[in-house]
Amino acid sequence: MIASDVLRPVTAHPDDGVELGIDLGIRTGFGDDWLRVGAVKVFTDGSLVGRTAAMTEDYAGQPGNHGYLQEPAADLERVIVAAHRAGWQVAAHAIGDAAIDVALGAFARAASQYPRPGGTRHRIEHFAAARPDQVARAASLGVIAVPQGRFATELGDGMTAAVGPGRVPWLYRQRSLLDAGMVLPGSSDRPVAEGAPLLGIHDMVNRRASCGAPFNEAEAITAREALRAYTWGSAYASRAEGQRGRSRLVSSPTSPSCRRTRRESAPAASRAWRSWSPSSAARSATTRPG
Ligand SMILES: [Zn+2]
Predict the structure, then answer these.
(1) CA of 168 to the centre of ligand 1 (A)
(2) Fold type of domain 2-246
(3) Span from the CA of 45 to the centroid of ligand 1 (angstroms)
(4) pLDDT digits (tens, 9 = 90+) for 234-277
(5) pTM score > 0.90 for this model?
(6) 35, 167, 186, 283: least surrounded by Cβ within 10 Å?
(7) What residues does the ion ligand 1 have nearby, CB within 5 Å?
(8) How far is ligand 1, taken at its centre, from the CA of residue 91, in Å?
(9) By the 8 A CB rule, do 123 and 239 touch?
(10) CA–centroid distance, residue 212 to ligand 1 (Å)
(11) What is the Cα–Cα distance from 95 to 47, expressed in whole angstroms?
């Protein structure tokens, strides 16, 4: 990803509608497996633990403090819409519900004024304190929310204290995103949190703060769903599901027994894995990967 600060005014034919960009028209998707340009990241607010994320209501125990946006809302929206028009996938860092409103509003305007065929896969990184209506709106816009499972353990105590008990059900949703039909990726935000995928998967399932207390347990998902998030979900969110994010049986062509395994077993197994999803797994336990 590149930061939106890198975008600058560029000249293009007026019909192209390119207002901001980088040299040579490079944008999301440029490159190959060695070096690839991903989304452009737009920072809209701060953090919950630092009580700087933009909330619609005050932080717990701090009357008058509801955080703040990094820039005026109109400026953030202008950058997001301009990046969309220039062909970028936008990843908006939005943690507080007020910041999420700004990001969703910008994505909605981009979609209505400048529809892009083929889907944009715009993302909201963190989507940390999201009201129920924002889940529904994100789903309807096709926005991908990118929560960090590991934050439950590493930041859960601080986030809970910051928002107070009434808003804990908004924190780092996973279950409600899947229930709304949204794609759920796995993410660590490394180096902010530990990057090991198995730790992230563990926390997406177990949802415990460092003190051992449950962290918005209603949003826990199953191990199978968390594995799916860390593989296919993350690949889809990176527009790379064609190259990454699937598991299949691989065997050595030099071993007779493995050759037999590959010829006789792998096609059926990989077919099963390709067609696997939480819902299909529930329908048929016999087709699950081994
Ligand atoms: Zn971020």
Answers:
(1) 20
(2) TIM Barrel (3.20.20)
(3) 9
(4) 999 999 888 888 877 776 665 554 444 444 444 443 443 443 44
(5) no
(6) 35
(7) 93, 125
(8) 9
(9) no
(10) 25
(11) 7
